[in-house]
Amino acid sequence: MRPFSKLIVPVVILAAVAVAAVVLVLVLGQFWEREPLPEVKSCIGLIAQINQASFNIKAGANKNYGEEDMDIVIKVDEATQYSRLTLPSIVPIDIEDISSLMKEEAIQFSDLRVGDEVVITSQDDIRGKAIFTAATVQVTAGDIEAPEVDAEAGPESSRIME
User: Which of 53, 65, 113, 153 could make a disulfide contact with 157, Cβ separation 3.0–4.6 Å?
Assistant: First the structure.
């Protein structure tokens, strides 16, 4: 037997295993490829502190794209727009367009209060950022007087907004 013939079988097996590994990585790689995450341009949180030209919010992961709750510093500038969106606490069940019950009004930075729930938008992707500049700040509130509910229709005629 020639000395190199003893090496042929292990080399062929090694080459076959290498080819199989490359094919496996290529095939499985297709399943593990993920679409790029979309840009995040807004967040929701509670105002924790108000400063001269910024404020801090506590942004819960359950209402945002974060993996954990975050403290975020929201900077504002002369271009930042402010509004208050007021929603009813109780909405009639037969209403088709809830937007007719909403009230939005322009406000100013000085109208912001610690504890307000705010929706912040930005021109930039804010995913994972702990500080960014707001394009808009919208305070959400639920203090519009509830619309009339048909007493004969019973409690099913309205739904409570939380």
Answer: 153
